[in-house]
Amino acid sequence: MKSIVYSLGRNYNAQRTINGFFKQNTDDVDALKGKRTGYYELLQHYTRNLASTNNSLDEFVRTEFPKLAPGSFASALHPLIHAGYGYHVGDAATVLEGFAYMHHSYFPITFKRGRKPATLMGKGSKTVLEVVELLQQDDAIYEHMTSEATSKRAERYLPVKGPQIKYFVLAEDKGDDLLDYVSQIK
Questions:
Q1: Mean pLDDT (10-residue bins), the chain, 186 residues
Q2: Helix, strand, or coil here: 126?
Q3: CA 76 – CA 174 distance, rounded (Å)
Q4: Is 0.70 topped by the overall pTM?
Q5: What is the pLDDT of residues 10-56, one digit of tens each?
Q6: Torsions phi, psi of 137, nearest 5?
Q7: Of 23, 16, 64, whose CA–CA distance to 37 is shortest?
Q8: CA nearest neighbour of 177 among 111, 114, 131, 108
Q9: 182 close to 117: Cβ distance less than 8 angstroms
Q10: What's the maximum distance between 2 C-alpha atoms anywhere in the chain?
Q11: Which residues 6+ apart lie within 8 Å of 21 measured at CB?
């Protein structure tokens, strides 16, 4: 394992973290959810979880995805896309990388009105592109994202930096507004 990490150009701290993980128990993995640290520990955790399903990707995804789905908004859905592509082509390594990344960058959308997103999808009258266009014209959401992303409050999203902070603000403050848009999709 050491040679793999070093060959990937990882630093000493990454190696030390990996070595420490093998001595920890799996409950510690929950503490890493959304912390943007410990990727290799998470990858090892999901590798063990896949092995516990007799290497069945179907069973693994059925068991693990519900735990991560609410927070798959972070990183612009890249981990979800990564895992989905791997699942589609039956490549377990790619699925595991996607799940570790989802866990690593977990950040859920906050809904304050108590509605369930799944019950609203597909009941609207607009195409996805029409709804995206409406969302792009929503100056209030954009203004809120921009002002909050540059406020002192944005420090709580660290170590995330740059434009991605706007998406974190959106997920935390405007989940219900996003749901209003999603509910318009047919």
A1: 38 41 59 90 95 96 89 79 92 96 90 73 86 93 91 81 82 88 88
A2: strand
A3: 16
A4: no
A5: 333 444 344 444 444 455 888 899 888 899 999 999 999 999 999 99
A6: -90, 0
A7: 16
A8: 111
A9: yes
A10: 55
A11: 28, 38, 40, 41, 44
